[in-house]
Amino acid sequence: MRLLLTVLLSLCAFQYALAQDPVFMTNVYGRTFESLNGKWNVLVDCYDIGERRHFEKNAKAVGDEDFVEYSFDGAMRLNVPGDWNSQSPELKYYEGVMWYGRNFNVRKSERQRKFLYFCGVSYRCKVFLNGKFVGEHEGSFTPFQFEVTDLLKDGDNFLCLKVSNVRTKDAIPAMNFDWWNYGGITRDVLLVTTPETYVNEYFVRLDDGNPHKIRVTLGLSGKVERSVKVEIPELELSAEVTTDTNGQAELVMASDKIELWSPGNPKLYRTVISSGDDTVSEDIGFRTLSVDGTRILLNGKPCFMKSISFHEEIPQRMGRAFSESDARMLLGEAAALGANMVRLAHYPQNEYIVRLAERMGIILWEEIPLWQGIDFSNEDTRRKAVAMYREMLFRDRNRCAVCFWGLANETRPSAARNAFLENVLQIARAMDDTRLYVIADDVAKWNDGKGLFEMDDPLTDKVDVVAVNRYMGWYAPWPKAPAECRWNVAAGKPLIISEFGGEALYGVHGEGHRASSWSEDYQANLMRDNIEMFKNIDNLAGISPWILFDFRSPYRLSPGNQDGWNRKGLLSDQGLRKKAWYVIRDFYDGCGYGPDLTD
Ligand code: GCU
Q: Of 387, 389, 450, 452, which has fewest CB within 10 angstroms of its CB?
């Protein structure tokens, strides 16, 4: 029965992957757009009455008989992009509905199309324009767009969103997660202008891992046969292709001059794609990626993942990160640590972070927030997971820095969870088979008789790389001296220790051997102990201490030590480096694990 279920899910998976239209245009920042960021007026709708009262109509009491009991005019103002929790003390813990409204002017012209493109709204929203429902979206961390060509008025328009961050059992993430439940229009809002027919989507990458061939898969916005040109001037490459009756086309270009992207040489090429009166361009890198036994090869050479994680949060501002300067702060500290990879915890982070990491030569692991307690037996939840995965892949598949798609984090093996994740994995691979798929598990168990860690999860046979989160010395005692802890997990495959560490309050010193000391010394000793253990893991292909910065979490209630912060950061919530930061920096500087890529 289970086999039949898996086969059926796989079939519909494959069909789903091929049949779907692209979810939004590729490379929105490379297009013609007007930013709708700024101060928006908001109504805090604690009782969710706004739809019944039609707040989207933005009604005004004009006649004597008119009675309107709400108004965006004169209401509270919030910055967009930005979470609401960090913009007002009263909203710090707010979990509910918020109505956003703003006016904007448009000059419409013939043969142009207009789209509202939202880079991220947390967690679900309904969009209204000039009082009319335009569409809705669920999921905080991936973009979505709606065409509004016919809804827009020439002149003044009123854009209104109903946003809710209320947690629900069927959501992703679900009821509990170890980060702040930020709500709001947390990323850029753009009004995009395109010609009637435009280059809607494209995927540019090496052809089946061949370092001398580039494959471009592209699609126009309409089912039209039209010539499309692809140029990479620095490689003196230019090719034209005519789309089929579905507006789709594919081409391959050869060059023996391609300089491969790597952490040591983050080479990117200006790539221009044009058709008719539409041109879109961006910088794209090329690299090969594969697994050879227990090693991860980048451009054919072993590359040990010296990783770190961070949440999409600026701790000093106590809010979600959303800008280019925020990206520079987070990635700057990752680079200073000596990391060559960032595991973007636990969700697709904003494009500024992804694109800057690529320019800096930092490998990325991206995942959707299938975090611990997910309703795996719910078909709606599975559809949401597939939609979120599709949106993440469509947004970032041209980013060569993204080498890993993460499947899930700390989900317990079960028939429902295994079938659910296998289905998501099948669909993802059908969309993008150029990257490595990894799962982060926390079900490794110590076998005292054998003196080693083992793990039993059928998904480890399906992914390319296996990762384990393990907090010895914090959530579990060391079963033996660290140097004596051996591992037999995912033998024959690359293994990444994707989370380890413990908490320390910056400035607390001493008692380096007592977990409840909350001291920097204890945390630093934890890092040293883990490094000791790593030497015994034959198939170790990377490590990623948890986590770069202290971050906000409703889980963390130890007064005086946590006060709503998870203190596992190597840096404090003020951006100050703890002793553990230096332990990891020295290890990354001098670790002899496999040659790092320097050329
Ligand atoms: C888990 C989880 C993290 C969490 C961490 C912790 O492994 O993946 O999201 O923050 O442990 O407990 O600090």
A: 450
Please state which CATH number belongs to domain 22-193: 2.60.120.260
What spacing in Å lies between the alpha carbon of 179 and ligand 1's midpoint? 9
Q: Which element (helix H / strand E) includes 589? A: helix 579-590
Domain boundaries, the chain: 22-193, 199-275, 306-589
Q: What is the CA(251)–ligand 1 centre distance, in A?
A: 43
- The strand pairing partners of 440, in sequence order, are 409, 467
Helices (H), 287-378: 324-337, 351-360
CB 580 within 8 A of CB 526: yes
Give the tokens for residue 413: 């093996």
Q: Is the peptide bond before 559 cis (omega within 30 degrees of 0)?
A: no
**Centroid of ligand 1 to alpha carbon of 93 (angstroms):** 21
Q: Which two tokens stand for residue 31?
A: 């297009």
Q: What is the pTM of this model?
A: 0.95
* Ligand 1 atom nearest to CA at 501: 13
What is the DSSP secondary-structure string of 366-388?
Answer: EE---BSS--TT-HHHHHHHHHH
Rg (CA), the chain: 25
Number of residues assigned to the chain: 599
Using CA atoms of 162, 167, 171, 176 in order, give the dihedral in degrees to the nearest 10. Answer: 150
In short, whether 346's Cβ falls inside 6 Å of ligand 1 is: yes
Q: Is the C-beta atom of 556 inside 6 A of ligand 1?
A: no
Contact 421, 409 (CB under 8 A): no
Give the closest residue (by CA) to ligand 1 atom 4.
178
Fold (CATH) for 199-275: Immunoglobulin-like (2.60.40)
Neighbours of 418 (CB within 10 A): 18
Q: Fold for 306-589, please state it.
A: TIM Barrel (3.20.20)
